[in-house]
């Protein structure tokens, strides 16, 4: 069953998806042929290169989610991420949740009173010095009297996460163990000046409350993972298992974006491409199944393939 949940919605909805015959989809989109992508078949769902820890707790009920933001139409990269989530849940008799991330409107966090112009100055200074443009934590050093004074003046502020000062270690099921130094991490804004939560705050809270066990998402979110893990630790929650997927690129080697180009799923459907053609196309971007004699695979076929979407390897 497919569950759909919109933020602020009162209930989830179930959807039945029907498929017709398929035609071949032209290769208008190409995968990124990085070492990670070329070895996707071996490393994506394999224990050969990534050690599985006991804390992964694979005995729990599987729940995964696809959580796009409503900033544009769904492109093929997003469709592939959603498909991998869905097939993994289907393979393991789990649940796939579609959640729309509409977030536009213990000394673990602090109030930041910096204006947009101040933040821009900090960024430009870091770039000029050849440093990573992260926030310099100046507001984390304000004393209580200064904070009270600024609040009494009515100065707007955001709430920032105080990132750990030690090295962050990420155990990802595609890229393995990744270490990120403290100097590479930004103190992410959790609550905007108008009181609404940012994605960085909403995503861990929603995932915990919805009991999400595995998160499949694009590799562009890897740098943000330490922030999300810090929130889990700060709230005393067990983090999910992360699986970051290599990005898809256009034929001109630019990153696929739902804001630019004719790459959204609707445009392909309007051109006459059928569901099975699109699903088979995105399913095999980055790897090729072994010993497969079928030209077009159904969702049942895809969910049963090994090693992709194999519970024992995640």
From TrEMBL:
Q: Which SUPFAM superfamilies match?
A: Nucleotidylyl transferase
Keyword tags: Aminoacyl-tRNA synthetase, ATP-binding, Ligase, Nucleotide-binding, Protein biosynthesis
- MF terms per GO, please? ATP binding; glutamate-tRNA ligase activity
Give every Glutamyl/glutaminyl-tRNA synthetase class Ib catalytic domain span: 62-105, 107-305
Record's Gene Ontology CC terms?
Answer: mitochondrion
| Superkingdom of origin organism | Eukaryota
Q: Biological process GO terms, please?
A: glutamyl-tRNA aminoacylation
Q: Which family does it belong to?
A: Belongs to the class-I aminoacyl-tRNA synthetase family.
Q: What is this protein called?
A: Glutamate-tRNA ligase
Q: Which organism is it from?
A: Smittium culicis
């Amino acid at each position: 069953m497919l569950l759909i949940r919109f933020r602020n919605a009162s209930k989830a909805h179930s959807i039945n998806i029907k498929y017709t015959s398929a035609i071949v989809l032209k290769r208008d989109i190409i995968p990124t042929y990085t070492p990670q992508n070329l070895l996707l078949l071996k490393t994506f769902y394999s224990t050969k290169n990534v050690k599985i820890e006991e804390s992964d707790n694979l005995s729990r009920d599987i729940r995964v989610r696809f959580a796009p933001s409503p900033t544009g139409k769904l492109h093929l990269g997003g469709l592939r991420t959603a498909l991998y989530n869905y097939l993994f849940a289907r393979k393991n008799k789990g649940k796939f949740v579609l959640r729309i991330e509409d977030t536009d409107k213990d000394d673990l966090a602090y109030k930041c009173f910096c204006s947009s112009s101040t933040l821009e100055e900090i960024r430009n200074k870091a770039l000029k010095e050849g440093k990573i443009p992260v926030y310099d934590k100046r507001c984390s050093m304000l004393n209580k009297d200064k904070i009270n004074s600024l609040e009494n003046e009515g100065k707007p502020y955001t709430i920032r996460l105080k990132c750990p000062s030690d090295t962050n270690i990420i155990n990802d099921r595609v890229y393995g163990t990744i270490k990120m130094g403290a100097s590479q991490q930004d103190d992410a804004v959790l609550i905007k000046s108008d009181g609404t939560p940012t994605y960085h705050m909403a995503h861990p809270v929603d995932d915990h409350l919805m009991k999400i066990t595995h998160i499949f998402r694009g590799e562009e979110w890897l740098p943000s993972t330490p922030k999300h893990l810090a929130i889990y630790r700060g709230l005393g929650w067990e983090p999910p298992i992360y699986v970051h997927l290599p990005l898809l690129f256009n034929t001109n080697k630019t990153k696929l974006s739902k804001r630019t180009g004719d790459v959204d799923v609707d445009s392909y459907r309007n051109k006459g491409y059928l569901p099975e053609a699109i699903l088979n196309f995105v399913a095999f971007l980055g790897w090729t199944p072994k010993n497969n004699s079928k030209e077009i695979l159904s969702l049942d076929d895809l969910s049963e393939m090994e090693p992709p979407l194999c519970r024992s390897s995640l």
